[in-house]
Protein 1
Amino acid sequence: MNVLIVDDSATMRKIIMRTIRQSGYSVDNVLEAGNGKEALEVIKDNKVDLVLTDINMPEMDGISFIEVLRALPETKNLPVLIISTEGAEDVVEKAKTLGVKGFVRKPFTPEKIGQALKQAAG
Amino acid sequence: MNKTLIDAFAEATKSVLMMMAGTEVEMDGMMDGRQKVYGDISGVIGLTGSMSGSIALTLPVELAKRLVANMLAMDASELQEEDVQDGVGEIINMIAGDAKGRCNDSFKISLPSVITGKRHTVSTSKEGDGVIIAFKEKVPFYLQISLEEK
């Protein structure tokens, strides 16, 4: 299982990475990107099984990034979890229409991340 | 500024620092937003929507290092300057996001900025519409809130 973490904060990427490992979730490789545009490059060059993405990011935000994923035949079914400070109803609804597997609001507990990973895997 | 809003930001600050950095902090009073408070590193974020303005978290560097080290489960001595700056940016982002949730997502938040400099001050409130919440950990730190409700 290869996981891609997309967040403009390197600190947050490290925290999420540590939390995934602590949750006991079996991960082979954790890949990182600082925004949606960088994430698309990472996906082009690597096999990615699950994406965990923030929403508010420079260059390309999380919703635009997921829209691109859904438009590409090779990534249209790629499981995506959102981990963000954003939780407005319109954004959550939009994410649901894009087939997002779960939504974790920052700040989070390791348990919330663990539950969301299980949900995404299921 | 109404008390509900101030409480939302105060609780968000306590919650983020406890949940993400395992650090318990207490409120230590409030001041008029035009007062000057000093710190070595500040995270600043803009808010728009039903209210507009900004919030700034101003910290002494030793506390900033300790919080970020706790968030990353690292020793503070291992941190690079950019780790501390990025970490403080993420802390103010989460405080704004948590407060946003407590206010029924009635505003939007911008991307955070970080200011550094020994004993600097951030001027966010000129019209007397702001407040400063003082917090107490081992050392004092401040959340400056300057918001205009629409």
Note: The radius of gyration of chain B is 14 Å.
Protein 2
Amino acid sequence: MAQHGRIAASSAFLAAAAAAFVLPDWMISLATIAFANGLVVLGLIVLWRAGLVSFGQALYYCIGAYAVALVGRWTGVSDAILLVLIGGASAGLVSFVVGFLLARYREIFFAMLSLALSMILYGVLVKTESLGSTDGFSVIVPTFFGYAPHQDGLLVALYWLVLAVCAIAAFLVDAYFRSVAGALAVPVRDNEIRVEFLGLSVSRLIHTKLVISGLLGGVGGALAALAVGHVDPNMSYWTTSGEFVFITILAGAGSVGAAFVGSLLFESVRSFAFAILPQLWQMLLGSVLLLTILFLPQGLGSLITHLRRRRRVEAP
Amino acid sequence: MSAPILSVRDLGKRFGSLIAARDITVSFPAQQTVGVIGSNGAGKTTFINMVTGHLRPTHGAIHFEERDITGLPSRTIKAMGISRSFQVAQIFPSLTAFDNICVAAAIGHAPKHFIGHVCTPLRSREAVAEAEILLDLFAIGRYRDTLAATLPQGVRKLLDIGMAVAGSPRLLLLDEPTSGISIEEKFDLMQVVMSALRSRRITVLFVEHDMEIVERFAERVLAFYDGTVIADGTPAATLADARVQALISGPKAKGAAGSVADV
């Protein structure tokens, strides 16, 4: 089974990489943003499995993005990979620190506290005129090991970078889900007392999940900043967090790949909705969410599980 | 006799003005099966909670295998080899019976440090093998792929104890293993549990209200009253004790104790 999954994931990755040669520019840039956001969603899934819903994931997204923008601005470093690492590390560090606080809370208190933290950052950024207040500021044009592509070349290079980072993240998170610490998500959600009496610290397990989701959020934000070429405080606003939660519901927490498929679907529906219903596009998005919750409560990922189960029933 | 596996000296616990446990001094040799009796509020569960680290004693000391474990956190105590089951089965309802035990076995087999938990797969060969063995040992193999939420009460209890046994503890505390089980099923359940634990050479302390079960399965009985131990000895001796009969078992168990004497 794991073998099948790996083959399917590798083929999907190669197909997505090859698509860069045939797709129009606007689709490549849409997919770049979608996959970068998919990393943030993957981080939410890590928490979601343990029964935690973060309404403040934009905090890490924004920190990753601003870290890239500020390092580029102050030091002139433009290497994309280095910048993404810096963005991820900054957000990971922040999630480690606030994790000491967040790991103690559950349910609505966890959701609201994470939301509050992201809104504090939003407030600070809006008031900081040296960082452009609400307008934000632009991000350095990235280079790749000294190679500095322009326009179309840059677009494709960033797309491939995002794909590569997503593939690595998906592989690592998948391995984490199979590990003792990762697989304990459902037990932690079900019965914390039992987990403690089996000999593990629940708050440390949750703290780990917070750091993983913070790292993923920061890397996603860093990639998005490079792709868009601009950062602004809205990246930390609660509606941004809400979008990530929206995509997580759409994708479901069942599989790692669903985070990226869900994110791509969300960006496509949004562009499509915006094109045909410029005044009412939010209504269309809302309807998609409603239909998902009604008919696919476990998200897109559950489609694959259903198919697999059906095949297993038919097989013997 | 070799050194005791567990020895407790002058143990006490106070919640504000309420004294939940006091002056408990008792020790247990390895591989003994000990029944603990006492009415509700007598301090039995408080005693278990202090030994397993769930409650910190107000005074006194607890030594396990000659190491002082007083006041250590429950997960450290568990890692040292003391495990427990619960009055109300503490299981993971959204996992199958197999996964419940596999989680417990995997934690037992993984290296005891944090990085080990991230780098060891949950379904390692050792964990899966131990989970299969435990399912058979506790006679719940046919519920292997059933979600724990839908299991009958007796199976939940066995699953709970099976999870406590995963990771090879040397001392196991069972808090009312037969509570919530019908009278007809109690003996069979205890038979399965006790033979499983004996085959693993585990020292057992079990809290029980049914005196017939205590007589049948315990080698030694501790009677709790008002936070302390009022009698300690063989089942026949403890159940024949005048204070135990007056305060705990009542006149009904008098006949039962007598019948054991007859045998």
Note: Strands of chain A lie at 137-138, 230-231.
